[in-house]
Write a structure and sequence with these properties.
The chain has 318 residues and is α/β, with parallel strands linked by helices. The chain has a single domain (8-309), classed as Spore Coat Polysaccharide Biosynthesis Protein SpsA, Chain A (Alpha-Beta Complex), CATH 3.90.550. It has helices spanning 3-6, 22-32, 44-47, 52-63, 94-97, 108-111, 160-170, 177-193, 210-225, 242-250, 272-281, 296-309, and strands spanning 10-15, 70-74, 89-93, 124-129, 132-134, 151-155, 200-201, 206-209, 255-258, 264-268, 285-289. The strands form three sheets. The protein has a five-stranded mixed β-sheet. Strands 5-11-10 form a three-stranded mixed β-sheet.
């Protein structure tokens, strides 16, 4: 690890929600109505808590003990098992960072625009969902270059624009909300900078500079993002966080790396083959993606799998 990275404070930010909490469910349902099990936008898997955060933090302690501080962004919730008195742990409520029109928010896409507002957040930070895991020893140099700029990891998609066009216009297959909001980000960057990004970030732990994140939101795309802030659940006009990666690359404020299954692997918890792939490739990072296709048995399997993979209790637990 180079001297620049050694001397740099690097924080880690998680979004976390316990969708099993009756009070939280009542709040959500009062705003958006009953959960639609078959909807990718508002399915049970979007909010289910399978104790992933507990095991993700165990992995951080094992493989990235150099992380300075861990911020957990929540909606008036705290994991029952979490020792919030630990000096590295800080709970951040939505009310501390979101504008009033966004509250209450059940839309991670909106919440992610305001990560830079977290009080006390370091200039260099990592962002993760609670289903993302470090899988082997890493250093700051795995996320930031010798010049301090973030390493941005993309999945390579050579003909993405054509593929999306064919699916939507020719095959008449509706674009998923996730792909659509990434496309929204790509089109904004193209309109502003004349560069279209067909690739997308690897859906795993990402690195950012706080000041660049703030600049992209406040100085470049605030007026474009503003109309989406009232979207309390995911909506098709949302602008996905890929925006910040695209702009960092355009401004030459990042290093672009393309991932393989040996560096970053996202799998679906309802697919048994993906568990075998994880063991085969043993990537640096992995994400256990819940979705509308998973059932309760799949979620119970996740918890047991993680318990066996990360059996040692961390110092972040009571």
């Amino acid at each position: 690890m180079d001297n620049t990275t050694k001397s740099t404070d690097i924080d880690l930010v998680y979004l976390w929600v316990n969708g099993n909490d009756p009070k939280w469910r009542a709040k959500r349902n009062a705003v958006i109505g009953k959960t639609e099990e078959g909807s990718a936008v508002n399915c049970e898997g979007r909010y289910a808590d399978n104790d992933e955060l507990k095991y993700s933090l165990r992995a951080v302690e094992m493989y990235a003990p150099w992380v300075r501080k861990i911020f957990i962004v929540t909606d008036n919730q705290r994991p029952e098992w979490l020792d919030t008195s630990h000096p590295k742990i800080q709970i951040v409520d939505h009310t501390e960072i979101l504008p009033p029109q966004s509250l209450p928010s059940f839309n991670a896409t909106v919440i992610e625009h305001f990560l830079y507002r977290i009080p006390g957040l370091a200039e260099h930070f990592l962002f993760a969902n609670d289903d993302m895991f470090i899988n082997r020893p890493v250093t700051g140099a795995d996320f930031f270059g010798a010049d301090g700029l973030p390493i941005i990891r993309f999945n390579r998609r050579r003909f993405r624009r054509l593929t999306l066009f064919l699916k939507e216009k020719v095959l008449k297959k509706g674009m998923s909300n996730y792909n659509r909001i990434i496309q929204n980000a790509a089109r904004l960057v193209e309109a502003r900078f004349g560069i279209y990004f067909g690739s997308k970030t690897h859906h795993n732990i990402d690195a950012y500079l706080r000041s660049d994140y703030q600049h992209t939101y406040e100085k470049i795309f605030k007026d474009d993002i503003e109309p989406t802030l009232v979207n309390h659940i995911r909506s098709d006009n949302d602008i996905q966080r890929n925006l910040y990666a695209y702009v960092a690359i355009v401004r030459k404020r990042a290093h672009l790396h393309y991932v393989s299954q040996r560096t970053s692997f996202r799998f679906h918890i309802d697919n048994p083959k993906h568990y075998r792939k994880l063991e085969k490739f043993n990537p640096m990072l992995f994400c256990m993606n819940d979705s509308q296709y998973a059932n309760q048995a799949d979620r119970e399997h996740v918890t047991e799998y993680l318990r066996q993979r990360f059996p040692e209790k961390s110092k972040f637990e009571k």
